[in-house]
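Section 3.1: Structural characterization of target chains.
Under the original work plan, the team committed to producing a structural model for every single-chain target entering the pipeline before any wet-lab resources were allocated. The record below documents one such target. The sequence was received from the expression subgroup and is listed exactly as submitted; it comprises 194 residues.
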Amino acid sequence: MAIAHRNAQVGGRALIEHGARLAAIAGLLTLAGCQPKPEVTWTRHSSRSEKFTVLMPSKPVSRRYPADPVAKTSERIALISNHGDASYRVDFTDFGKPRTGEWATRSLDSARDYLLTGKGWTLREERRITLDGFPGRRLTFDVFNPEDRIPFIASTRLFMVRGDFYQITVVVPKAQSDSPDVDRFLGSFQLIQH
């Protein structure tokens, strides 16, 4: 009986030491910006105005912004979802009247330029794309947050759909930039009415 008790103590101590080593490794990974991602079930969410749907890893927070007479917008909303170290966001702006042709191109260029100057992001790649025949941009940025000291990648899609502007963005640590979640999110964006 004493031998069995001693073996149980030694085995228990080994488990505690092993657990402490795993906790130390998890702590180092967290310090390095590599938080383990909990299992997630992606669900489809839509805007209140029912103009688009998108898959998100958690229930998004919806933010509504007031009309902006300078920018001539009547509505602006954002759906934001964070999961692990990643942030997923869809911004929708209603300009009221259609922006087509050259006006749509200038609007997309202005949105890109704002991300470069207003946010201080560095453009890595830019491609012209379309969504259901509407003009857009596919952009990839390097993002560095001095507070975190971790390099991030922002993948963004911009679309001008008549008088509606959409910005779909996912920001992840650079080490996770090839995660299938990036394409899952960006590829899930769909227009409902246009």
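The chain has three helices and ten strands.
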